Each structure stands twice: as C-alpha cells, then as structure tokens.
Amino acid sequence: MSTEPSQASANAAEAASKATQTQAPPVRPGESAVVGGGNTLTITRIFEAPRELVFQAWTDPDQLAQWWGPEQLHTPRESVIVEPQVGGTWAATMVMDDGGQEFPTSARFTSFDPPKGFAMHDEPNEFFPFASELKVDFEEVDGGTRMTIVQHFDTESFDFGDSILGWGTSLEKLRRLLAA
Residue 147: in which H helix or E strand, if any? Predict the structure, then answer.
C-alpha cells in the first residue's frame, strides 16, 4: 500500500483527533491504530517487512537516522547512539529542517529481546519535562510485522496531539525506508 506524505500527515491528524477512541487492531500493511488516554499512548502499525528488519531499523544507528523524527525534522547520524543491551544507551537528536531548534532524547534499555522487542526508560530533559517508559513489540503477521508501541508518561494526564502526529509521520518515514 502506497501512502504519499501528505496523505500520511492527513492520516496522522485524523488519528490524533480519534486518539481517545478505541480502535480495532490493524490487519493490513500500512494500517495503524492509535489509542491514547490518561498517561498512556498505544500505537500499532503493520509493515510489509520481516520482523528482524523492522527491529533492526530501531537498533541500527544508520537506519534510525533515516527515519527518526516527524516530518520537517531530521536526525543527524552523528547524534545517534544505540548500545543494544539492557542498560545500554539509546539516543538521538532531532533537528528542524530549517536548521533551527534541536530536540535531544536519550533513554536506557530496560529490556532487550531481539527480534521480539525492547523497552526503554527516558528521563526528563529541557524539551520533554517528564520521564516515560517506551515498550516496542514486534510480531510476525502474514509475511509482515505488527509493531506495537506503548508509551507511558510519568504525569497524571498527557495531551497526545503532537505525539500522535510525530509518531505518525515518523512511522511513515520508517515504512518508506523498509520499502526501499
């Protein structure tokens, strides 16, 4: 299934507006389901790629630099650090395409089970003022991979709008990378 970037942005915006509604799990490549409420966001998406390749896109710094971050941002390869083991660092800095503001993020792996999944703990920083737990699972489905992201924020409630839009366009960039 081919989705143009403008369509991906429209799909992400639609998902953001429906974030508090329960959605059925995706069943076809390119489909996503987004559920947000309280302080937890769950995103499920199916990719037309083997589980090992989708997992590797998260743990190979060269690939991560190609897709991490929403549209209008890029991630310089030199900013990416991935130490694929429990206790290891996962870090990347997103930069506005106009050369402006930078958005660093850094986490520690709390579990690591290739190619089934991993979990990370992200400490607060200047741009993201609260800790979060991120769990990413990869499941083989009909020749592809169902990826489920669960992000739990250390705050009582969270406005998921920007996160859903950011994840949506980032995952579209990942889909394009995996299709290449």
Answer: strand 144-153
Tokens 């130490």 identify what position? 83
The pLDDT, as a whole number, for residue 29 is 58
Residue count of the chain, please give it. Answer: 180
Sign of CA dihedral 174, 31, 33, 27: negative
User: Which tens digits make up the pLDDT trace of 84-93?
Assistant: 999 999 999 9
Alpha-carbon gap, residue 128 to 72, rounded angstroms: 19
What pLDDT sits at residue 37? 72
Nearest 5°: the CA angle 169, 172, 177 is 130
Q: Do 89 and 99 contact (CB within 8 A), yes or no? A: no
Check whether 22 has a pLDDT greater than 50.
no
Q: Which amino acid is at 50?
A: P
Q: How much of the chain exceeds pLDDT 90, in percent? A: 61
CB 65 within 8 A of CB 92: yes
| 88 phi and psi angles, rounded to 5 deg | -75, 160
